[in-house]
Design brief:
This protein has a single domain, classed as Beta Barrel (Lipocalin), CATH 2.40.128.110. Helices cover 17% and strands 45% of the residues. The protein contains three helices and ten strands, in the order H-E-E-E-E-E-H-E-E-E-H-E-E. A ten-stranded antiparallel sheet has the order 1-4-5-6-7-8-9-10-2-3, with no helix packed on it. Strand 2 and strand 3 form a beta hairpin. The radius of gyration is 21 Å and the shape is globular. The chain starts with a helix and ends in a 15-residue tail after the last strand.
């Protein structure tokens, strides 16, 4: 009986250890800056597209229960480029004020809805997530749609990133007025209040870990 009791205890400990290691952390930290974050602004005579690959973050999730997920992303707004250097300077200095508010930050607080409860190899999952989006010194709670595809490590994925990989795609709108961001009012550059944000990023369990400095974005 004593041996049976010890065996049951060892099995319980092993099972507990397995459960604890089921969670995976995927780091968004591509040194080659191949991830893409896009801000799209409409003006009467053109569409202005600002892009950057300077995004870092993490997604911590259990592939067997993706409702239990934590995530955070930070975008370096001072690296946004629209293709015209003078316009970039005005955008950063006069409107985004990147000297005072250098980052756009999204911190996930809840997975509200998922097309399925688990991550399966190479099968897209549609998520609706809630979180705090901070830009220009203002934080607001928003709801956004995301698509996640999980790839178990293979010879093909190693070409992109080490370890298991996830791809995250999403598109949502914000209002500049919600974040107290002024916008150009010249006839040719009079921007719409609504701005579209698009992300297409990859995280991996083998990428360098990401640590976040204390935010210095208060007015």
């Amino acid at each position: 009986m004593k041996r049976l009791g010890i065996s049951i205890l060892l099995i319980a400990m092993a099972t507990s250890g397995y459960a604890q290691t089921a969670t995976k952390t995927f780091y968004i930290n591509d040194e080659k800056k191949r991830d893409v974050v896009t801000f799209i602004s409409k003006a009467p005579l053109e569409t202005i597209v600002g892009m950057t690959g300077h995004i870092v973050g993490f997604v911590e999730t259990d592939p067997a229960d993706i409702m239990n997920t934590r995530a955070r992303f930070e975008v370096d707004l001072a690296t946004l480029k629209t293709g015209i250097d003078m316009r970039d300077g005005h955008m950063r200095g006069q409107y985004l004020e990147t000297d005072k508010y250098p980052k756009a930050i999204f911190e996930l607080t809840k997975v509200a809805k998922a097309s399925q409860p688990t991550l399966e190899n190479q099968k897209p999952v549609e998520l609706t997530v809630e979180g705090d989006f901070s830009v220009h010194g203002v934080t607001r709670t928003i709801t956004i749609p995301l698509t996640i595809v999980y790839y178990q490590e293979s010879e093909q994925t190693k070409v992109k990133l080490p370890g298991d990989v996830i791809r995250i795609e999403g598109t949502w709108d914000i209002l500049l007025s919600d974040y107290k961001i002024s916008r150009p009012q010249f006839v040719i550059l009079k921007l719409d209040d609504k701005q579209k944000i698009d992300i297409d990023v990859f995280g991996s369990t083998g990428s360098p870990a990401v640590t976040f400095a204390e935010s210095k974005q208060s007015p």
